[in-house]
Amino acid sequence: MKNEKDNLAETIAFLKIKQRQDLISLKEQLHSTFESLKPINLLKNTFHEVDDSPQIKNGLLNSAVGLATDFISKKVMANTPENSMKKMVGSVLQFAITNLVAKNADTIITTGENLLKRVLKSKNGTNHQFSGN
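Below the sequence we write its predicted structure tokens.
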């Protein structure tokens, strides 16, 4: 009878210790989950996922290059008077810039990545590595 009481007491003591450890682990997991759901951490994780995915990164960079090219072409032509010759020259210029960007997209993307690395390094004091060039 005493042996059964001792076994029961040991089991209860063991379960109490396990319960405390589980509670500590649960609190740590709750804190970790809470931290990961903060908006700033969600944004950071999203940027890290984009950084880790060459397809997404290249798609975004190509889109940015295209938008920048279009913006620059329109700015160059924005200050010109409205006549058909100027419009035609503007269209040819825009076509030429688009072709130039298309032929040198890798160089432009690499330059953009290097600039982004410098900006991130200066803001965070660390160097972020880009993958999948």
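Residues 54-133 form one domain.
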